[in-house]
Known about the structure:
This protein has about 450 residues and is an alpha/beta fold. The protein folds into two domains: about 10-205, Rossmann fold (3-Layer(aba) Sandwich), CATH 3.40.50.720; about 220-440, 3-Layer(aba) Sandwich (Rossmann fold), CATH 3.40.50.720. The protein has 19 helices and 14 strands. The chain has helices spanning about 15-30, 40-45, 60-70, 75-85, 105-115, 135-145, 165-170, 180-190, 195, 205-240, 240-250, 270-285, 290-315, 345-355, 365-370, 380-385, 400, 405-410, 425-430, and strands spanning about 10-15, 30-35, 70-75, 85-90, 120-125, 150-155, 175-180, 200-205, 325-330, 355-360, 375-380, 390-395, 415-420, 435-440. β1, α1 (about 15-30) and β2 (about 30-35) form a beta-alpha-beta unit.
Amino acid sequence: MSLSFPCLRLTVIGAGYLGLTHAVCMAELGHDVLAIDTDEAKIAMAASGAPPFFEPGLEPLLRKNVEAGRLRFGTSYAEAGEFGEIHFLCVGTPQSADGSADLQYVHAAVDALAPHLRQDCVVVGKSTVPVGTARGLAARLRQGAPAGLQVELAWNPEFLREGTAVRDSMSPDRLVFGVTSSWAADRLRDIYAQQLYNGTPCLVMDLETAELVKVAANSFLATKISFINAMAEVCEASGADVIRLAAALAADERIGGRFLSPGLGFGGGCLPKDIRAFRATARGLGVDSVDSFLNEVDAINLSRRARVADLAREIVGGDLAGARAAVLGIAFKPGSDDVRDSPSLAVCDQLTREGAIVRVHDPVATGNAAKVRPDLRYADTVTEAVAGADVVLHLTDWADYRAIDPVALGQVVGRRNIVDARCTLDSDYWRSADWTVRILGRP
């Protein structure tokens, strides 16, 4: 006997990275989904089955559910209000000049949706917001919605990782429901019935705690990454090996090895933004210890970018002016075409400021990089990128780069110098091919 799960009419407000991924995966779970966005070009792309960003596994699911009629797109809040039983808020909360989260898009979405609601419903926030935001949004929602409707606000933070977002959505490691009533919690359980049946843990809590979960988790993750990178600095100063140190730490069950990987550090549109916004929230609450602590985490992370430029300068003889630098990887992480707060782009900035001639290769992200840094030179192949180079910099850990044959590459470069900023290349193999190898935190 086949299992049957609830099928609900869901709207997703915002069809960016989070919103589109969530809409596709909700449709894949069997719900009827309408995703809306004010960007007509983005909506047109998605409706044609072409996601406006690279995410492994997303495009075939998008096409499948559009063709099946479970997923459609539009720009009308009136249509969304008429259609949806549950409305997900998935709009951006970009970083403001002072580091805090810019909530204008969240406020605008609630204000635009509320007067068009036509049935009892739950509006569910998924965007990352400062603690306390949900209570204010609930008040705006009640004020703007037609009288007589039961309209509640809940918070259901997302935990998507770029490169594994489909898997994270379909098989999450936990579901967090911030609610003010059992009715809203039950509606969320209906939405995620399949995951709950499959054993996904569900944690039900108040709105404020739910808002804190995402930023607290990201702050802990950032701390772990910055900690091992601080240890890499100690290893460089003392002659120790950070990879062996990390392996020994990972064997401690209190610590574990996940995300204890030294290297160039974190970037992207989520982790740096979230810890800076959390710092701003902590300052506003008078919790200065969190502000100062996360300031150090951020500073350690940013310092690794400067250190990579230092290694490049050292390996070419102390002066980057006129040096030809080949950069392997411009996305902030493998499996993504996202270059927001890319550590690799930051290194390129430093190299070019010092007069280096930089040529970049990335399997998927050069198009996005060229929009923000059109002055850099972009190559279609690794061979083209490294031709005649004085130094090669391994900055994004794509599997393709780990598979490079250093003997063959040595026939193309000008000088056999490489900086491994991700600490994942086989240094003995490269050195046996007569390469000078410099690695963050390793001899």
